[in-house]
């Protein structure tokens, strides 16, 4: 059966479920007694297991299954959540995530999960990690042993009815748990001897691992089974113990009630797995039925027994979402087509203004309006809420705080703020880095916080919001803040600045030093951050996305990293200018204002030409010289037009020939053949079909 | 064993060159070229080819030959190699021929002033026509460009 058509759906949905698992686990950690959260987690885990089993990812299904077992106990109030259980479950989630990742990258999703599975099984057996292997509490109570059976053996309906019938007929139904000595050389033989012994006086209904696996030695020193007999349990126990190298035997007599209890537990997972199996076979014959159907068919079956057993569970699922998944490539195609249209629109506008036909002008104007609405919608289609990036942070901060032995609250606001998909894909890593920095370097250790009169728990605010044509993402913590002297000391030591420069620097400039390549303020290199490759990479990435990072910090009070990002990357507003016979586009976002200067206003300072602009002197940059433009030279003009551009706080003026006007332009790459050209970020196609180059003004300001 | 291939024939000066037809996307008359500053002298700029911005290089310049005036016969051959789209400005392009690969011979060190590494071979067609087959990935190789750059500086 060709599963490929379902694979992307599987990956998408798995990621959704993993995300919801992560989120709810965190919620649960906050209020460990809220069973309704456990229900939601259980359902997610269960669906994930079903999906994985259908798609044939055995390891994924097996691990989910073990996690489900633990959750099931919690759900039925047989186990209370504790720290080590959370940690193990989180470890399991991580393993699941990496498996799904592997599948996404075309792997087979296989991974060695035996360690996590073992510890999960230990939890199900009611063992704390420290008392591993003691296994003394097996006989403790029916409920715990029933829980144990749940993982060890799952009965199908037929086997259950056989057992049930036997009890009704007055036979003894026993549950046996047999341990063979660890140092036993021929455990399969010993197991065989036990089976042989048992079968002489009764019937083994079901064993785990299966008899076949036991024969092939595919088990660890212990196995368990359901057994129908007329013999006395105590006698049986001693008989089994007579077989050499048998370490321990636990015999438990079952009555109808305890059998039912055990089977219900077993059935919830067992039946569900079977239910998934069935529709998947249907799928193979019909081919068309979607995998989602299989999932839906499974769910009601699975929830019903649980709902009967427990108080009416909250149906945690949200209202059916009115969205569809669309391949991002299709959106890119749509975007490209729209860009073509935009170019034609500009061309039409130009033609209409030449022809001066009233009807034509009117039509073109209407078309322009419609197309700007269309542009809005097309852009919105590519917008994704930042939540898709933010949602993994709470978990990350939790782990990080734990490993650093700090207490940190992460408060996320504005997670519904939307950004272009391309930006979203790229912004994750820089944000991870900034957050790690905030927790590692920003937030002080608990003792230090208390001694400086701050609350024990540090707060990291992660905020996203719109402002103009930009989206801001701020990471603010109430940690120790940035000390100017400390930075300057390090910068001097590393040779990033000279003593002279250092004393002349504003606080703002000092903060920017953090982004200098090879700069790291951490006195101690920790495994979290401070490998010296940090912030300059962050800055480079954000700059390449057309964004900026600013730092605001108050020593002792905390630091705010503010990341400014453009809303979109493919269509920008730009000023078109003429340089002789050539045309260039300058992004509007970096223009402060335009103006005219007379030749005598231009001064020369240290060989650099400067002009006065609003009370300060700014450099006048000659584009024609930088770009070798032959048919324009501003020196030959008595008056020259200038465009004042900015990079953060710094300003500069570009001398240009003539303004053409403001326009929406579509960004196009220059192709792979040309190497990166300093000062040019790309190209665009103008209304007349000509190509104009887009300037990257940031390069001109040093 | 060789096979029949189709080859686009174009001219630089008096020499005839060939590019396999499946590497050629289209052949265009001269278009308006936007100069790109601060790049190699043989890169004439970029053109708008139906909405796609494509860099154009003067093949004469690329091979270190003297550049010529553009005429009515001048063509831009758009080739696609290694996911790169590039336009070649050539003196003229007006022939497509069938060529058997067996007839392509290893080129001598220098042919018409062009180093052998840019060539796949030389094929004799007709009685006195020689067709020089270009090795496009070498012509567009970036390593070579970096070397050129360091020479120019």
Automatic annotation (TrEMBL), chain A:
Molecular function terms from GO: ATP binding; phosphorelay sensor kinase activity
InterPro entries assigned to the protein according to its UniProt record, in alphabetical order: Bact_Chemotaxis_CheA (IPR051315), CheA-like_dim (IPR004105), CheA-like_homodim_sf (IPR037006), CheA-like_P2_sf (IPR037052), CheA_P2-bd (IPR010808), CheW-like_dom_sf (IPR036061), CheW-lke_dom (IPR002545), CheY-binding_CheA (IPR035891)
The protein's enzyme class: transferase
A biological-process GO annotation: chemotaxis
Ranges where the record places region Disordered: 276-319
UniProt keyword annotation of Membrane present: no
Annotated ranges, domain HPt: 1-103
Key words of the record: ATP-binding, Chemotaxis, Kinase, Nucleotide-binding, Phosphoprotein, Transferase, Two-component regulatory system
Residue span(s) of domain CheW-like: 571-702
EC number, UniProt record: 2.7.13.3
CDD domains (alphabetical): CheA_reg, HATPase_CheA-like, HPT
Listed Pfam families: CheW, H-kinase_dim, HATPase_c, Hpt, P2
Catalytic function, reaction form: ATP + protein L-histidine = ADP + protein N-phospho-L-histidine
Keyword Metal-binding included in the entry's annotation: no
Signal peptide: none
UniProt cross-references to PROSITE patterns, sorted A to Z: CHEW, HIS_KIN, HPT
Residue positions where Phosphohistidine is found in the record: 46
Domain Histidine kinase: 319-569
Cellular component GO terms, alphabetical: cytoplasm
Protein's UniProt name: Chemotaxis protein CheA
Natural source organism: Paenibacillus mangrovi
From TrEMBL, chain B:
Keywords: Chemotaxis, Cytoplasm
InterPro entries: CheW, CheW-like_dom_sf, CheW-lke_dom
Nucleotide-binding among keywords: no
Location, primary (coarse class): cytoplasm
Domain CheW-like stretches: 4-145
Residue intervals passing through the bilayer: none
A Pfam family recorded for this sequence: CheW
A cellular component annotation (GO) from this entry: cytosol
Residues spanning the signal sequence: none
Gene Ontology biological process terms in this record: chemotaxis; signal transduction
SUPFAM superfamilies in the cross-refs: CheW-like (SSF50341)
Protein name according to UniProt: Chemotaxis protein CheW
UniProt cross-references to PANTHER family, sorted A to Z: CHEMOTAXIS PROTEIN CHEW, CHEMOTAXIS SENSOR HISTIDINE KINASE-RELATED
Entry's localization field: Cytoplasm
């Amino acid at each position: 059966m060709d599963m490929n058509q379902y694979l992307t759906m599987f990956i998408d949905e798995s990621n959704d479920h993993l995300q919801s698992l992560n989120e709810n686990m965190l919620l649960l950690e906050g209020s460990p007694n809220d069973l309704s959260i456990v229900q939601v987690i259980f359902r997610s885990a269960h669906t994930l297991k079903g999906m994985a089993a259908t798609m044939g990812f055995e390891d994924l299904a097996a691990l989910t299954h073990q996690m489900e077992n633990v959750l099931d106990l919690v759900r039925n109030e047989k186990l209370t959540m504790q720290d080590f259980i959370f940690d193990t479950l989180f470890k399991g989630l991580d393993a699941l995530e990496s498996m799904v990742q592997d599948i996404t990258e075309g792997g087979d999703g296989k991974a060695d999960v035996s360690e996590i599975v073992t510890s999960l099984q230990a939890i199900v057996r009611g063992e704390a990690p420290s008392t591993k292997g003691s296994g003394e509490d097996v006989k403790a109570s029916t409920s715990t042993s029933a829980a144990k059976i749940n993982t060890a053996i799952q009965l199908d309906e037929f086997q259950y009815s056989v057992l049930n019938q036997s009890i009704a007929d007055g036979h003894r139904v026993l549950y046996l748990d047999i341990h063979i000595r660890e140092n036993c050389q021929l455990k399969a033989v010993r197991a065989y001897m036990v089976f042989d012994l048992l079968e002489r006086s009764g019937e083994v209904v079901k064993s785990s691992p299966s008899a076949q696996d036991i024969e092939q030695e595919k088990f660890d020193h212990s196995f368990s089974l359901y057994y129908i007999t007329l013999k006395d349990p105590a006698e049986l126990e001693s008989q089994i113990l007579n077989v050499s190298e048998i370490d321990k035997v636990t015999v438990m007599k079952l009555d109808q009630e305890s059998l039912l209890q055990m089977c219900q537990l077993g059935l919830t997972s067992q039946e569900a797995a079977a239910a998934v199996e069935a529709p998947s076979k249907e799928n193979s014959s019909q081919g068309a039925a979607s995998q989602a159907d299989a999932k839906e068919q499974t769910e009601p079956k699975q929830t019903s027994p649980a709902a009967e057993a427990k108080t009416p569970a909250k149906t945690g699922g949200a209202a059916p979402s009115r969205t569809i998944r669309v391949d991002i490539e299709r959106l890119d195609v749509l975007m490209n087509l729209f860009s073509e249209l935009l170019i034609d629109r500009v061309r039409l506008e130009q033609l209409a203004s030449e022809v001066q036909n009233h009807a034509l002008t009117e039509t073109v104007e209407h078309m322009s309006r419609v197309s700007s609405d269309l542009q809005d919608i097309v852009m919105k289609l590519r917008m994704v809420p930042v939540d898709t990036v933010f949602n993994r942070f709470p978990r990350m901060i939790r782990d990080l705080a734990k490993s650093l032995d700090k207490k940190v609250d992460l408060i996320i606001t504005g997670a519904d703020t939307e950004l272009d998909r391309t930006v979203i894909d790229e912004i994750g890593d820089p944000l991870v880095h900034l957050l790690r920095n905030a927790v590692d370097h920003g937030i002080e250790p608990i003792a230090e916080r208390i001694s400086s009169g701050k609350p024990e728990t540090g707060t990291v605010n992660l905020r996203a919001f719109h402002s103009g044509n930009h989206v801001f993402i701020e990471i603010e913590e109430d940690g120790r803040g940035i000390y100017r002297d400390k930075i300057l000391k390090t910068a001097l030591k590393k040779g990033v600045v000279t003593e002279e420069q250092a004393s002349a620097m504003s606080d703002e400039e000092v903060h920017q030093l953090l982004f200098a390549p090879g700069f790291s303020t951490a006195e101690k290199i920790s495994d979290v951050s401070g490998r010296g490759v940090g912030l300059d990479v962050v800055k480079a990435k954000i700059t390449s996305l057309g964004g900026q990072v600013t730092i605001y910090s108050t020593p002792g009070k905390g630091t705010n990293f503010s990341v400014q990002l453009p809303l979109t990357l493919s269509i920008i507003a730009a000023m078109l200018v003429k340089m002789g016979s050539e045309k260039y586009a300058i992004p509007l976002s970096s223009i402060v204002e335009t103006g005219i200067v007379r030749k005598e206003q231009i001064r020369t300072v240290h060989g650099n030409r400067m002009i006065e602009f609003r009370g300060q002197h700014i450099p006048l940059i000659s584009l024609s010289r930088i770009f070798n433009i032959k048919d324009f030279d501003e020196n030959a003009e008595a008056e020259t037009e200038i465009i004042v551009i900015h990079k953060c706080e710094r300003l500069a003026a570009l001398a240009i020939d003539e303004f053409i006007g403001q326009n929406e332009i579509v960004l196009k790459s220059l192709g792979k053949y040309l190497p990166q050209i300093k000062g040019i970020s790309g190209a665009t196609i103008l209304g007349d079909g000509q190509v104009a180059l887009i300037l990257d003004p940031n390069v001109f300001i040093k | 064993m060789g096979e029949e291939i189709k080859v686009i024939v174009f001219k630089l000066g008096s020499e005839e060159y060939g590019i396999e037809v499946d590497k050629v996307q289209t052949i265009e008359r001269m278009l308006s070229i936007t100069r790109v500053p601060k790049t190699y002298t043989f890169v004439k700029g970029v053109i708008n080819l139906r909405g796609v911005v494509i860099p154009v290089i003067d093949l004469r310049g690329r091979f270190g030959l003297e550049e010529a005036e553009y005429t009515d016969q001048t063509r831009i051959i758009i080739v696609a190699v290694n996911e790169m789209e590039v336009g070649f400005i050539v003196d003229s392009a007006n022939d497509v021929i069938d060529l058997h690969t067996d007839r392509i011979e290893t080129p001598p060190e220098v042919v018409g002033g062009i180093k052998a590494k840019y060539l796949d071979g030389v094929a004799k067609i007709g009685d006195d026509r020689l067709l020089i087959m270009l090795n496009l990935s070498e012509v567009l190789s970036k390593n070579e460009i970096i070397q050129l750059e360091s020479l120019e500086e």
